[in-house]
Amino acid sequence: MPVMTPDELEAALRGIGAERYHNRHPFHRLLHGGKLTRGQVQAWALNRYYYQCQIPVKDATLLARLPTPELRREWRRRLEDHDGDRPGTGGVERWLKLAEGVGLDRATVESTAGLLPATRFAVDAYVALVRDRSILEAIASSLTELFSPTIIAERVSGMLSHYDFVTPETLGYFTPRLTQAPRDSDFALAYVREHARTAEQQQAALAALRTKCDILWAQLDALHHAYVTPGLIPPGAFVPDERA
Amino acid sequence: MPVMTPDELEAALRGIGAERYHNRHPFHRLLHGGKLTRGQVQAWALNRYYYQCQIPVKDATLLARLPTPELRREWRRRLEDHDGDRPGTGGVERWLKLAEGVGLDRATVESTAGLLPATRFAVDAYVALVRDRSILEAIASSLTELFSPTIIAERVSGMLSHYDFVTPETLGYFTPRLTQAPRDSDFALAYVREHARTAEQQQAALAALRTKCDILWAQLDALHHAYVTPGLIPPGAFVPDERA
Predict the structure, then answer these.
(1) Is A221 in Cβ contact with B234 (below 8 Å)?
(2) Tens digits of residue pLDDT in B79-129
């Protein structure tokens, strides 16, 4: 494997997004196109909550490994975004409001009782990656945020136009993400461009981003299998009201 | 929660198997009933290889935490079963022979390159459970072996009668499991009956077995979604020849 220039590396990272980011998954096309029932949207919100609530765990895990005040200050902002500054603020809280907005009970969502096991396994794999792999790989795995503003714009406009049970307040989670994600991914991309110098480091960074895409994709596969086609809900997982 | 007697606890453990063990999954009904193509059987063998090759990792992880020679001797037998005594022996090797028998290339299988990401996440969750939870929970999670002799008998007779590409030699993995699994689960069941004394310990043991069933079920969900219905193979995963 030859060593890439930083621009070539960035192009390869962006190529992974073009191939593997979960905007290409049929479940998202159904979600954004208004093709899901309220129960299916609830299943999405309930499962995605586990991803949201583990994001600050993931960021704190990485924070604890970062060696300098500069890096820790940068990464600490992510915790502020997700955990907020006081009760009732932050991304995790806004996701709970989204879940309530689509008709779920907050305590049920927080309990993670009806979670698909595959959601838990995929999200836990993300925390494990950030704990067990190099700091370069941990930072590279966050680069799916390069691709998120497009999907967020599609999601918000699609869901608002297609679902009468979805309001702008319900989707309040996404508004700050449109500025937070580019700010965060600018930093992470600059870090990877600078620190992935050998061919081995560059391949490791690419593999970490591929794994992160797999983690997001596997969550949608599990939702699609349980709640869309063939609609085979695993034992113990959330059963939407309309099917009960 | 009241404290159960050992017999009540055993009945509750067996009840989890009756409800959640993966013999109830439609993928196994298709596999054993001769309803899969050779490519679908290959996908099963390739993905299940990762489970097989991580079983001794799981057992070594637990072995390292066991406090007495008695317990370690008992658990060491599991490593002997899976890793063998010399090259060409042991359960992992026999699984590779199964994979070759259904037409896969050994090096491809060993590389785990075409693995479904969801298989990796589920199997890694099993190793993590055994590393991170109590010894009681780790041992209880092995109790799916209480339920495996039935499924093995069904699988071997079903696959031999329905698939002309499957021979008794190909399925040689399963023969020793019919005696190893009951021996191992007898020990694990006796351990759990004796050591799960408080209501909390009993509930933790039951939850660990439930999680293990989820780990097995999620692997079949992922196979079913990718290779049966809707047949949506995730980016980068194994594509059977018949669809290439």
Answers:
(1) yes
(2) 999 999 999 999 999 999 999 999 999 999 999 999 999 999 999 999 999
The letter for the amino acid at B158 is G
> A68: exposed, middle or buried (C-beta count within 10 Å: 0-12, 13-18, 19+)?
exposed
Look at residue A117 and tell me whether its pLDDT is greater than 50.
yes
Q: Which residue type does B2 have?
A: P
Distance from CA of A138 to the nearest CA of B (A): 17
The pLDDT tens digits of the residues spanning A3-36 come to 999 999 999 999 999 999 999 999 999 999 999 9
**Helix B174-195 with B6-20: angle, nearest 10 deg:** 140
3-state class (DSSP) for residue A1? coil
Taking CB atoms and an 8 Å limit, are A235 and B19 in contact across chains?
yes
Helix (H, G, I), strand (E, B), or coil: what is residue B131?
Answer: helix
**Which residues of chain A neighbour B124 with C-beta distances below 8 Å?**
121, 125, 128
- Residue from A65, A81, A56, A72 nearest A134 by CA: A65
Q: How far apart are CA B108 and CA B233, in angstroms?
A: 18
Q: How do residues A119-155 score in pLDDT, each as one tens digit?
A: 999 999 999 999 999 999 999 999 999 999 999 999 9
Q: Decide if B118 and A222 are in contact by the 8 Å CB cutoff.
A: yes
Give residue-wise pLDDT tens across range A55-113. 999 999 999 999 999 999 999 999 999 999 999 999 999 999 999 999 999 999 999 99
ipTM of the complex: 0.93
In 3-state terms, what secondary structure has residue B165?
A: coil
- How far B85 CA sits from the closest chain A CA (Å)? 31
Could you tell me if B220 and B28 are in contact, meaning their C-beta atoms sit under 8 angstroms apart? yes
B111 near A CB under 8 A: no
Interface contact B133, partner A, CB < 8 A = no
User: Cβ separation of A224 and B215 shorter than 8 Å?
Assistant: no
pTM exceeds 0.90, yes or no: yes
Which value, to the nearest 10 degrees, does the dihedral of the CA atoms of residues A134, A148, B122, B102 take?
A: -100
Counting every residue written for chain B, the total comes to 244
Q: Which residues of B touch A117 (CB under 8 A)?
A: 122, 211, 214-215, 217-218
Tokens linked to A175: 């508004």
* Contact status of B57 with chain A (Cβ, < 8 Å): no
Q: Domain B6-227: give its CATH code.
A: 1.20.910.10
pLDDT(B73) > 90: yes
